[in-house]
Request: fold
Amino acid sequence: MGRPPCCDKANVKKGPWTPEEDAKLLAYTSTHGTGNWTNVPQRAGLKRCGKSCRLRYTNYLRPNLKHENFTQEEEDLIVTLHAMLGSRWSLIANQLPGRTDNDVKNYWNTKLSKKLRQRGIDPITHRPIADVMHSIGTLAIRPPQPPGTPPNGSYLPAPPLPLVHDVAYHAAGILPPPTPQQQAVIARVDADAPASPAADHGQQQLKWSDFLADDAAVAVKSEAQQVLGQYHHEAAVAVKSEAQQVLGQYHHESAVAANGGGGGGVLAAAGSSSGAGGGGGDDGAAAFIDAILDCDKETGVDQLIAELLADPAYYAGSSSSSSEMGWGC
DNA sequence: AAGGCGGTCAACCGCCGGGAT
DNA sequence: CATCCCGGCGGTTGACCGCCT
Reply:
């Protein structure tokens, strides 16, 4: 049985809010606060769903919201946090006073992702598009074997491997040099992967159902995850360190901007440092951390990030500069 | 002037996690 | 422990607007 609707949709108004509705909602929240949104419409005299009221308040009526354009510093912070956290808009918005997750999400989708693409950066992985295309090429696999064919280990492993198998991360210093065990896994991928997407006309794009159905592939996946797990501790340290630097950078540059200074920024730097490992570890850290976050929560890394980002003490005293981190102009 | 088109953004939808019972 | 309910979240939609032809 599905969850019942939160309100009587037949008697609920939808669409844009009128000034009168805004005034009612604002009057109610200013005197009663913002708890129990399901009762707010009735008590405030609104024919709206409680969720709609909450959304209108948090995204538009809430005090201290910024309605002006995003600054260069805010753009930089969004890009960098997106690289580390992915599309966790609420977490990102928490680091941008006066901005909502909806603001950040819209700004990303309409402006920032395009800017990155124009600079040759894939907005999903934050890596050079050429690298991403190459990775897609190495992800191609052979056609599914007929039923009954014994597993031969020819299927490529799950996505964690291409991330482990990425010299950019080693070059950037994000990952330590591969251990013999990791090299073995990497070699296995190299032996299996066609040199390029066009090299083998019999191949096809990776399909999860095909991969998951293959016992050998599951074994390789397990192996890969074991290898990847060895990085978790280093990754947690890297995440903490980078977030600390990023937020310190943001606050430092905000202070500079308030005094009339300007900021170069991540986007400005991206075009000139899009090569593998160039200008620091942003690109490598991005994809790698995303993979870890997606892998599982067992290590508590994601919790660590959340705690870190929620605690201003982590970055309040930072004095990192652009040149120290290699991402300024 | 009018229609097409793309960009922007407010709002909706459905899912999920967590607290209450 | 199971169920219900609420708030929060991310993805998506659609209305609106400005520009171009």
Remarks:
- Residues 154 and 192 of chain A are 6 Å apart (CA to CA).
- Residues 3, 14-17, 49, 51-52, 55-56, 59-60, 102-103, 106-107, 109-111 of chain A lie near DNA strand B (CB under 10 Å from a C1').
- The two ends of chain A are 57 Å apart (CA to CA).
- The first helix of chain A runs from residue 19 to 32.
